[in-house]
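BUG-137 | component: ligand-complex export | severity: low

The export step for fe (ii) ion jobs runs without errors, but we want the raw record kept on the ticket for reference. Input record follows.
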Amino acid sequence: MFKWKDDFSVNIKSIDEQHQELFRIGNSLYNVVSIKDGIDRYDEIMEALYEMKDYAIYHFDYEEKLMKDNGYSKFLKHKRQHDAFVNKLASIEDKDVDRKQKEVGMELIIFIANWIENHILKTDMEYKKYLNNKGIS
Ligand SMILES: [Fe+2]
Ligand SMILES: [Fe+2]
């Protein structure tokens, strides 16, 4: 589901590692939702979801500080995308996952995978050259 490729690299080691960690958490979410043994996976799904939200917040804070400290002009627009993603994850009510675990879980994973891929490949890529030129790598 989440596969890292060189196209995702922003040529900043710490950020690439954080993006890879987001992929790792995304994959563990995917794995839990994909198990077809009929066992209640509610706790595991919620755990992976919270892990994703917490790590996304950590990563976004890190990225935002880097952009801000370096006077990146598209900072606010970028931050708004981060905030929307966190709000979306935060808005998923526990009962939704409880009621229809598999559908909600899969829907979520598709949303998360699309969002992360899109955001890294478009929005994060926009700061790559700018920050690289400031000597950040
Ligand atoms: Fe970002
Ligand atoms: Fe990012």
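Assignee comment: Attached the raw record above. The chain has a mean pLDDT of 91.
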